[in-house]
Amino acid sequence: MDGTPLIAIDNLTFSYRESGGQGTTREVLHGITLDVQRGEHVAVLGHNGSGKSTLAKLLNLILEPDSGTIRIDGIEITDPDLSDADILTLRKKIGMVFQNPDNQMVATIAEEEVAFGPENLGLPSSEIRERVDAAMDAVGMTAFAKKETARLSGGQKQRIAIAGILAMEPECIVLDEPTSMLDPQGRKDVMKVIETLNRERGVTIVHITHDMNEAARAGRVIILNDGRIEMDGTPEEVFSDPDRLETLRLSVPQCTALMHALKKEGLNFEGPVARPEDCIEALCRALGGGR
Amino acid sequence: MAKLELRNAGFIYNPGTEFQSVALEDVSVAFEENAVTGIIGHTGSGKSTLVQLLNGLLTPTSGQVFLDGRDIHETKKDRYAALLSEAERSGEKVRRHTLKKQAASDCKAMKRNICFRVGLVMQYPEAQLFEETVRKDIAFGPANMGLSREEIDARIEKVARLVGLNERQLNKSPFDLSGGQKRRAAIAGVLAMEPDVLILDEPAAGLDPKGRETVFDCIRRYREECRTTVLIVSHSMEDMAAYCDRVLVLAGGRVLMHGTREEVFGQISGLETHGLDVPEITHLMNMLRGRGYPVPDGIYTVEDAVKAVMEIAHSVSGKGADT
């Protein structure tokens, strides 16, 4: 494998046209520069209106930037001379999953929904069958293949939406708040699918979320603030300063908050933690005397 | 007396057709005055149906809904019978005709006022904003209640302060507000009706952490100032633990648990099999207990966890000094 990042964003800016204004625009991204390597699991955090969703839509050319470039696999997708066929190839590399699965469902039966993408790629039917079965299996929804999508729970629908993207065999999946409408079980299921795809299949994940616990599970956390990258690092690095996060309208996972509060009380820990399993080890070491 | 109560209430969608589905079955639950109750339950457990029964949007297919001890769907005949027996008991002489008229007007008033007295903030309520300015939007409910101009203005001022919207924002178009401000403007519209009971369905969904906190602080301020009964439907166990006194758990259209926060979260295993969960901090404290530390039960917030861990730290270091 060469060293070309899967996604390379350079000095990207984007403005929305103001509603009702006479050609007035509002810039929401002010020069984003960012590389995402193959196989990374990146969480993107940021307050409402910080530009997270806009960035996601730019990655898939749903929106076009004002200036700056995006390279996917070394190919500049923002190049105006790009042919439609090239755009299609690029879109296959990056799949998107949105907040409300109902908004992206087109078929009535679960497996037909998953087959929609590969069918549109013009693949032979035997290959479509294989891909659909594999995708349903990957999200743990094989038992629901013949079910009506309307009768599935939110978490199940979201997993079908992910399977539909997966069947296109993308190298990267961009998920925009995929769990915010789900109950705790639905969240857990979707998070598990995201992590398995990343770890076992090497699918690159860009996960936009408001949930700090979910962000803590990523390998890298990027924080957007008012259209700029404010922080970029491991969850432990990013969550090491709760006060700074608060000024960015964010918070830290509960276990990180606990560790910080304990430190203030005078209990000593080595290094910041962001995940419950690391937190418990650090707690036991700090307390000593446990069994 | 309970403020709002369901007695053996059930609801069936499309009864008698092949699409018939039972959403709620034999639900009896009482919500006490001036308490914040969290309603949890996984998708399809009947939360939304329950909430719509409580404010009269849906009529139960069996059982009854009581507000301040009165059946909100009481028929004229039943109301008349109730008034008659009341009159007989007090020995007062009243004409039957007057009582009949009274019964009819009582029932009409109940039908008309139930949605004002039990205010419902739906999911993503900002989608319902429609007026030219935030001020006009907030005034819509009170104006429909037939309040005077002065009273409406006074209420707008009060709720704007409660939800933290300033004069400039009140005069803006709701569509020029940020996501969190829009949400608070929509909530203000319901608060302005000064309902006896306030119900919020996922009031903080889709907001950033700061936005969530602001919305919940608004609810807390409103409740402290107006001393009303509040019901909050949410999937976030952390928010439930932080803001609710009591928790109602629905599963498969029935009440699984109803009690204080401590009583309900104390039964984790019961919650987990129903696709629910306890706050992350509670899990963490349970893990610590599993490692042999004397962690007390009933820790649902980070503050309580800090206290518990520091106590353990002190007792461990104390023992260390002895040896």
Task: Please tell me what the overall shape of chain A is.
Answer: globular
Question: What is the CATH architecture assignment of one domain in chain A?
Answer: 3-Layer(aba) Sandwich
Q: Estimate percent helicity of chain B.
A: 40-55%
Low-confidence stretches of chain B: none
User: How widely separated are the two ends of chain A?
Assistant: 47 Å
Distance between the termini of chain B: 58 Å
Q: Please report the total strand number of chain A as a whole number.
A: 10
Counted by DSSP, the helix tally of chain A is 11
Percent of residues of chain A in helical segments? 25-40%
- Output the CATH class name of one domain in chain B: Alpha Beta
Question: Structural class of chain B, please?
Answer: alpha/beta
**Overall CATH class of one domain in chain A:** Alpha Beta
Write out the CATH superfamily name of one domain in chain A.
P-loop containing nucleotide triphosphate hydrolases
Count of separate DSSP helical elements of chain B = 13
Strand order of the largest sheet of chain B: 6-7-8-3-9-10
Topology, please?
The complex is a heterodimer of chains A (291) and B (323).
Chain A: E1 7-17, E2 25-36, E3 41-46, H1 52-59, E4 67-72, E5 75-76, H2 84-93, E6 94-97, H3 110-120, H4 125-138, H5 154-166, E7 172-176, H6 184-201, E8 204-208, H7 212-216, E9 220-225, E10 228-233, H8 235-238, H9 242-247, H10 254-264, H11 276-287
Parallel strand pairs in A: 3-8, 3-9, 6-7, 7-8
Antiparallel strand pairs in A: 1-2, 1-4, 4-5, 9-10
Helix pairs in contact in A: 3-4, 3-5, 4-5, 5-6
Chain B: E1 4-13, E2 21-31, E3 36-40, H1 47-54, E4 62-67, E5 70-71, H2 76-90, H3 96-117, E6 118-121, H4 134-144, H5 149-163, H6 167-170, H7 179-191, E7 197-201, H8 209-226, E8 229-233, H9 237-243, E9 246-251, E10 254-260, H10 261-265, H11 268-272, H12 280-290, H13 302-322
Helix pairs in contact in B: 2-3, 4-5, 4-7, 5-7, 7-8
